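User: Can you model how fe (ii) ion sits in this protein?
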Amino acid sequence: MLIELGALAIALTGGAWGLARRHRARLYDRQRRRVAAIRQTQAPALGLGRHGVPDFSRRVVRLRDFLPAELFAGPSAEVVRLQSAERTFVPAHKKGGTIAYETLIQQAPAVVAYYHAPELMGFFSSVVGTPVVPTPIEDQSSLSVLLYDRPADRIGWHYDHNFYRGRHFTALLTIVNQGHAPDGLSHARLVAAVDGREVVVSTEPNTLVLFEGAVVRHKVTPIQAGERRVVLSMTCCSDPRAQAWQGIARRFKDTAYYGVRALWT
Ligand SMILES: [Fe+2]
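Assistant: Here's the modeled complex, given as structure tokens:
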């Protein structure tokens, strides 16, 4: 009897795993088709040549007025309209909201078009000194929105662990940053450890911070009541292939942003 029950449990688990895999494969196929359609209809010119090639020797660079104002308005309006953030809380480390890549693919085509614009990846490649491409569609953090809008939303000191064969970079474009700090911004400050010093990286709206999170330790200090900081996070990689264990490790990391569903979606 016990043996039969055990066999039944194994069969049910295997069946559920197979169904989840099929469901996931279909979901990614749909998302790939939608991204391809967006790329065909929208290929924005972003005017990034005016930034030249900023110095990336410290593995972090900050660019104010990243996009021309008229180009910043459309995608930022799309981001502000989005409602479906997933809230997560990791005691003593992280609290905040996140909107995943799959939601952006469905609801924010202008943002997706910017992320996939050849000019953007070409610019990032020239800055970091190696050709980079967007990280895969299976990675919910490839393109996401980070929300700090409830008291004490924050993230403690950490490195962005790299789950790919190539080097991995993160670009944070600030969409909204409003608060009661003397400069009118929120108290959610991006702080990076650069050359052994803690450096506050000011992130006014339309500021881009590009960094290699695997080697630059960083944190965001707690936001206060009545403040709001909304950031578009874009990741890219010099080789987006991953070993199986790296894919699994990335999914476990993503549970801190999207809850346990990150293990199977
Ligand atoms: Fe990070």
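A couple of observations from the model: The pocket of fe (ii) ion is lined by residues 158, 160, 213, 218 (CB under 6 Å). The first strand starts at residue 60 and ends at 63.
User: Helpful, thanks.
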